[in-house]
Design brief:
By secondary structure, this protein is of the alpha+beta class. 19% of the residues lie in helices and 21% in strands. It has a single domain, classed as HIT-like (HIT family, subunit A), CATH 3.30.428. It is globular.
Length: 121
């Protein structure tokens, strides 16, 4: 796994870009998405540089799941969501734009018009 010195998520993890983290654990942090699909759209990101979910060690799974659940619960508690999607893209062909693994927590409201995984006609 090659680490990119230009990786924006690595810079945020090392606090080279400050005041972006809204939640943090030993191995993960959460930030608001720069281009949100809905109010409260949040990213959960490993602090170490992993390209895809396949690169994240299984030993980190409980901490990752807890972070995702905590972020989603916060969004629900703040009434930003009646439900939510957890989306994770792996590699460019699947829509991954930043080659550092990350998970999208997207708040959903009834009738919000957001649709995912819609096959092109």
């Amino acid at each position: 796994m090659k680490k990119s010195k230009d990786c924006i998520f690595c810079k945020i993890a090392k606090d080279e870009i400050s005041d972006m983290k809204i939640k943090e654990s030993d191995n993960f942090f959460a930030i608001k998405d720069k281009y949100p699909n809905a109010e409260g759209h949040t990213l959960v990101i490993p602090k170490k540089h992993f390209v895809t979910i396949l690169d994240i060690p299984n030993t980190l799974a409980p901490e990752l799941l807890k972070m995702i659940k905590d972020v989603a619960s916060d969004l629900m508690d703040k009434k930003l969501a009646d439900g939510f999607n957890v989306i994770q893209n792996n590699l460019q062909v699947a829509g991954q734009a930043i080659m550092h693994a990350h998970f999208h927590i997207i708040p959903r409201k009834e009738g919000d018009g957001i649709r995912y995984l819609v096959k092109e006609k």
